Protein: Aspergillus nuclease S1
Amino acid sequence: MEGRRMQILALFSFMLITLPAIHGWGTDGHSIVCRIAQSRLSEAAADAVKQLLPKFAEDDLGSVCSWADQVKFRYRWSSALHFLNTPDTCTYQYQRDCKDEEGEKGRCVAGAINNYTSQLLSYNSSASKAEYNLTEALLFLSHFMGDIHQPLHVGFASDKGGNTIDVHWYTRKEVLHHVWDSNIIETAEERFYDSNVDAMIDAIQQNITTEWVDQVKRWETCSLNKTACPDMYDMHLKVSKRPVIGHIKVPQKGQYLKMTIFSPDYQLLTGG
Ligand SMILES: *[C@@H]1O[C@H](CO)[C@@H](O)[C@H](O)[C@H]1NC(C)=O
Ligand SMILES: *[C@@H]1O[C@H](CO)[C@@H](O)[C@H](O)[C@H]1NC(C)=O
Ligand SMILES: *[C@@H]1O[C@H](CO)[C@@H](O)[C@H](O)[C@H]1NC(C)=O
Ligand SMILES: *[C@@H]1O[C@H](CO)[C@@H](O)[C@H](O)[C@H]1NC(C)=O
Ligand SMILES: *[C@@H]1O[C@H](CO)[C@@H](O)[C@H](O)[C@H]1NC(C)=O
Ligand SMILES: [Zn+2]
Structure:
């Protein structure tokens, strides 16, 4: 175990020294979540998504799943909707924790998932069309479903979701938050999939039909009469706080992704 870890560590140090700097992968996590989600939609939901996607997306939800990050500044009000923090406890309570910096209730990633899910549920009612921009609702919802599964987007208030924790990711200096946002995925792509994102998505989807098949039902279930079930995703708090000792341990292959793919269930669109 230890030997293998050292081996991988050595391999990585080698790769990082010999390969040119890699950049622009920050959107991969979101795009992977959305591509898996889109492939699992019911027929009615797939139709609705097609109708709602902007033209330039060319029917590919994955291509616009970082839109919500791009509009953070244009829509300043939306920046609070990407995360939530607990008062440094590993238990999360919607009533207590879902608020923005001004303390306004419901303004957090879980509240936003509820918000945009209910907007999308009115897809077929003509009244809603005037009231909301459902294209935006779709782009927000599919992005926030990714965010809530990033352990440090449901993190501790005192360290701003790991943004104040400096670590080394192999030879690079990063903040812990960024390691979870990008580095783990990047490294997995390079190390296990020859930088082929499609191969990585295929591998995850393989597991949905084999290793994790028993869990899938649970991911898809949201109890009757509930608009959405963002609170069930807080389970990832359990793994979000690891001791930081200079180097982060080599992630278990697939661990982050296991949590990421926990999200995409667009039964939401059809009210499931
Ligand atoms: C919207 O209504 C149409 C026509 O009744 C139906 O075919 C479609 O499945 C509905 N879409 C959703 C997402 O409910
Ligand atoms: C709900 O959606 C509307 C329309 O985008 C937005 O103005 C509002 O801030 C959102 N609230 C939350 C909590 O997501
Ligand atoms: C809905 O939002 C999208 C993305 O911001 C925008 O391109 C589109 O023009 C909006 N539609 C309407 C009817 O305002
Ligand atoms: C759902 O809501 C309806 C109306 O409020 C209620 O009659 C029904 O019992 C609820 N079902 C469940 C499973 O809670
Ligand atoms: C698939 O599941 C196996 C067993 O849990 C795990 O070892 C592997 O890393 C998983 N693959 C992916 C792509 O997550
Ligand atoms: Zn985000």
